[in-house]
Design a protein that fits this description.
Helix content is 41%, strand content 15%. It is of the alpha/beta class. It has a single domain, classed as Alpha-Beta Barrel (TIM Barrel). The strands form three sheets. Strands 1, 2, 3, 4, 5 and 8 form a six-stranded parallel sheet that branches. A three-stranded parallel sheet has the order 9-10-11. Helix 1 crosses helix 3 and helix 7 packs parallel to helix 8. The longest helix has 19 residues. The relative contact order is 0.14. The model has no long low-confidence stretch (mean pLDDT 97). Bound molecules: zinc ion. Zinc ion binds next to loops. The site of zinc ion has 5 residues, from loops.
Length: 321
């Protein structure tokens, strides 16, 4: 079964490794995602995030550095993988027997609230972006715990509304993972195209603020959007910490629930490999097929597995890119 994964932080890991003098690359490394592992896992496409922590570094500079690594690493492995700027590029890569790489940004703050920077990032190949990470920025708010109370109701700021309009114009897929619940509804009520939650699970199964409520899942499905199953233990099971291994059994519980609430077409994959610090039963990208085998045992049809593994996201890319 082909695989499309909507989120990994591998490029940022490569950048960080190089900052401390290591020679880490995309071809073969000790991370969860590299070209060899992707080939073994039967990947069609990986979305690579330029993730930046705005409290620890200049988000714009760091994002640009990560994007430079992305371009260099894809170029260095062009026999195996090619950049995707349009839907047609995916088809061309399939024809040439290559995998595809799509560039995203995880932290809208790297645009400093300036539409000009957003347009420049588009020119650098960015085709998907989360409005926020885990901090308030120029565009809006994540769900935050303030004085031990969970605050869900602060959504997009004025610049955030301008950004989602321009993202739809340009063809940058809006990613609501990390955004607050209010921000989700601001996007739902002020956009027309499908959007994604690239790496978020179901909150009624695992009550974490990074996961989606049933109502959000329904609304996302109605819009034709897709949510990517996140492999992080803390987003899968309330009883887990980051010391626990994330299990296939828990993933199945989420998949069945989301299928029940939003239907099969709202589900995709968003592993969060190289962005999560727990052990994963699906050890790394090379082992992705064990999820499909498990789903089969759990009664998912071949057609359903196909939709979850790549078809739903591919359809969304066709519509937006
Ligand atoms: Zn994330």
């Amino acid at each position: 079964m082909k695989v499309i994964d909507m989120h990994c932080d591998t490029m940022k890991e490569i950048l960080d490794a190089r900052m401390i003098g290591k020679n880490t690359n995309l071809k073969k490394n000790n991370l969860s995602v590299d070209i060899e592992k992707m080939n073994q896992g039967n990947y069609m496409l990986q979305v690579f995030a330029a993730f930046t922590n705005m409290k620890e570094e200049d988000s714009t500079v760091n994002c640009l550095k990560t994007i430079d690594i992305f371009h260099n690493e894809i170029e260095a492995n062009k026999e195996h993988i090619g950049i995707v700027l349009s839907y047609n590029d995916i088809l061309k890569n399939i024809e040439q027997n290559r995998m595809s790489a799509l560039l995203s940004i995880e932290e809208g703050a790297c645009c400093k609230g300036d539409l000009g920077l957003l347009r420049n990032f588009y020119k650098l190949g960015v085709r998907m972006m989360t409005l926020t990470w885990n901090y308030e920025n120029e565009l809006g708010f994540p769900n935050e715990i303030i004085e031990s109370k969970l605050v869900l109701d602060r959504g997009l700021k004025k610049a955030g509304f301008e950004f989602i309009e321009e993202m739809e114009n340009l063809g940058i897929i809006i990613d609501v993972s990390h955004l607050s619940d209010a921000g989700f509804y601001d996007i739902l009520n002020n956009t027309k195209k499908p959007f994604v939650a690239s790496h978020s699970n179901a909150r009624s199964i695992c009550n974490h603020r990074r996961n989606m409520t049933d109502d959000m899942i329904k609304k996302l499905a109605d819009r034709g959007g897709v949510m990517g199953l996140n492999f992080y233990s803390c987003f899968l099971n309330n009883n887990y910490t980051s010391n626990d291994m994330s299990k296939l059994d828990d993933m199945i519980v989420h998949l069945k629930h989301i299928r029940n609430i939003g239907g099969i077409e709202v589900i995709g994959l968003g592993s969060d490999f190289d962005g999560i610090n727990c052990r994963v039963e699906i050890e790394n990208a090379s082992k992705m097929q064990i999820l499909g085998e498990k789903m089969k045992k759990e009664g998912f049809t071949e057609n359903e597995i196909e939709h979850i593994f790549y078809k739903n996201v591919l359809n969304l890319f066709k519509e937006i890119l």
